[in-house]
Design a protein that fits this description.
The chain is an alpha/beta fold. The longest helix is centred in the N-terminal third of the chain and has 21 residues, at 93-113. A five-stranded parallel beta sheet has the order 6-5-7-8-9. Strands 1-2-3-4 form a four-stranded parallel beta sheet. It starts with 5 loop residues before the first helix and ends in an 8-residue tail after the last helix. Helices cover 39% and strands 8% of the residues. Bound molecules: 2-acetamido-2-deoxy-beta-D-glucopyranose (5 copies). Residues 265, 268, 271-272 line the site of one 2-acetamido-2-deoxy-beta-D-glucopyranose.
């Protein structure tokens, strides 16, 4: 709750134009890689749904033999075989959707198998993800391309300003506003006005604005937020058939405010089934990496990214400071860090308050390692700021699911140190060989584009990465539902 004070505490952030910055977290990622499920999807309740999936897969294989484009449009490309045309027309929109998803899964699966060949083949596309920073660059690429080809989101129009259809764009919770605006007014490619053709349904409310407009300051009473969410779900589930059809499993919400997880408790199906895109991706607070998405926290005070971070120095620029941190004492980890390192060692530039003549971003640009401890909540905008600065982030966090760790291999561009080892921090970082450090830093430069907020969005940037994480969860999801 205290994180509400972050507005004042994080004065170090002067980003511009709602454009960049983020925090991260991670934990034990090995148990989770959504792509791994593709070859062997886990079904919560195998049964009629599974049979339907199988049917769809085989039907789609037939159609694929005729259709060269892989398009889900059932009226094109089939002129050569009228039997197939008739068959296809009989499919409901929903079946067509599922069929498209089945094709996407198949193509991603084959990319996973043929990774080397594919990666080489894809070299024609300048955006192709390559290298160690990805868990599997070719599956990622294939799944990204499938998303571009097919993914459709329906955005509910219910609800009124300011809490719905808008969100902050100039503070720590910038992602809320930028994502909602992009979904509502941009991103035409990924949007559909026909809810029958949608793969997922977006509930465009802002938890940060709930806190601003319906929360009583200092009351620490979050029930108004829960009620809002509960009412919202009630409205859409009465008016449309989609919520009941999957018990919310193909619906998503996005919240960067720390209270996002609490607000989502307003409806138990939303909490348990829906895709919750939450900056506060704290495993001990119910974040479920199988279905929830961890976006980065990007702080844009004033709405802009600092010009200092727009063009970071080239990789070999000298960085006089070994490690850097400045920030308030909130949460359990930071006092420990400051206790051990503040004013102790010239190599460890650790401050509660920055010296007057120094500025935050210059420090990051001149440091080799940027320390990113959790505050009250797991996410921290420092992680993204470090990435923007070309500074290797050192993640000091428990229970944090790092952003996009479904596709990114955080070990290749960051260092994670157990919080209990903070007293040995310098020793641990010093033991990293120069060669290894250079690789980490190169990795930081490579992943930078995935954390950038652009207006309009660019391929593979943070907006598309968030969408991709949602897409991946949708294609793995086989909502064990009432869908017929
Ligand atoms: C059309 O497709 C059906 C089903 O696959 C097949 O039996 C039939 O021979 C095809 N007809 C033509 C003209 O290719
Ligand atoms: C969905 O289920 C709820 C609760 O069971 C019910 O009140 C509502 O009318 C249903 N919605 C539709 C569209 O049938
Ligand atoms: C989620 O499901 C569990 C188990 O079914 C249930 O005990 C819990 O109350 C649900 N969570 C919420 C927030 O409703
Ligand atoms: C950085 O320096 C190293 C060693 O001095 C050199 O091998 C490498 O090519 C340089 N990289 C760049 C991008 O200049
Ligand atoms: C994460 O959740 C746990 C359980 O609610 C809580 O104790 C912890 O303070 C939260 N935040 C962080 C930064 O770990």
């Amino acid at each position: 709750m205290e994180s509400y004070y972050r507005y004042s505490v994080s004065a170090f952030i002067l980003l511009c134009l709602c454009v960049f910055t983020i925090p991260v977290v991670f934990l034990n990622y090995d148990h989770f890689n959504p792509f791994m499920n593709l070859s062997n999807p886990t079904l919560e309740s195998p049964g009629p749904k599974f049979e339907l999936q199988r049917l769809i897969v085989s039907t789609s294989d037939q159609i694929r033999a005729v259709s060269t484009s892989g398009s889900t449009d059932d009226h094109q490309h089939l002129n050569r075989n009228t039997t197939l045309i008739r068959e296809t027309k009989k499919l409901s929109k929903e079946q067509v959707l599922e069929q498209g998803l089945a094709r996407a899964r198949a193509s991603i699966r084959s990319a996973a198998i043929a990774r080397i060949v594919r990666t080489a083949f894809f070299m024609n596309d300048n955006d192709v993800p390559v290298g160690d920073v990805y868990r599997n660059p070719s599956t990622f690429y294939q799944s990204y391309v499938e998303m571009e080809r097919r993914f459709k989101v329906y955005v509910y129009s219910e609800g009124e300003l300011p809490i719905v259809h808008d969100g902050p764009c100039k503070n720590l919770y910038t992602i809320e506003g930028r994502f909602i605006h992009e979904m509502e007014h941009g991103a035409k490619r990924f949007r559909t006005n026909d809810p029958q053709r949608a793969h997922v349904y977006f509930m465009p409310f802002s938890v940060a604005w709930m806190v601003k407009y319906i929360y009583t300051p200092l009351s620490f009473d979050i029930t108004p937020l829960k009620h809002f969410v509960s009412d919202y779900v009630k409205v859409i589930s009465i008016k449309y058939p989609f919520w009941n059809r999957t018990h919310g499993a193909d619906h998503f919400m996005l919240a960067c405010h720390d209270w996002g997880p609490h607000a989502s408790q307003g409806n138990s199906l939303l909490y348990n089934n829906s895709i919750r895109v939450l900056c506060n991706a704290n495993i001990s607070e119910g974040f479920n990496p199988q279905k929830d998405v961890s976006p980065p926290e990007i702080s844009l005070i004033g709405g802009y990214l600092s010009h200092k971070l727009i063009h970071p120095p080239p990789p070999n620029t000298s960085r006089p400071y070994f490690a850097f941190f400045a920030g308030g004492l909130h949460g359990p980890i930071r006092p420990y860090l400051l206790q051990h390192w503040k004013g102790r060692d010239n190599d460890m530039q650790v401050y509660e308050y920055l010296p007057k003549n120094k500025d935050y971003y210059s420090y990051m640009l001149e440091s080799k390692f940027c320390l990113c401890p959790s505050g009250y909540e797991v996410a921290s905008p420092r992680i993204v700021e470090a990435i923007y600065s070309g500074c290797v982030p050192v993640i000091l966090s428990d229970n944090y699911v790092l952003p996009f760790s479904d596709v990114l291999q955080w070990e290749a561009f960051s260092v994670q140190v157990e919080t209990t080892k903070i007293p040995r921090l310098k020793e641990i970082l010093s033991a990293i060989p120069e060669e290894k450090y250079r690789k980490l830093q190169e990795g930081v430069i490579v992943v930078r584009r995935h954390f950038m907020l652009n207006r309009p969005p660019k391929r593979f940037d943070v907006f598309h990465m968030i969408l991709h994480s949602i897409w991946v969860r949708r294609i793995n999801a086989r909502p064990n539902s009432n869908r017929s």
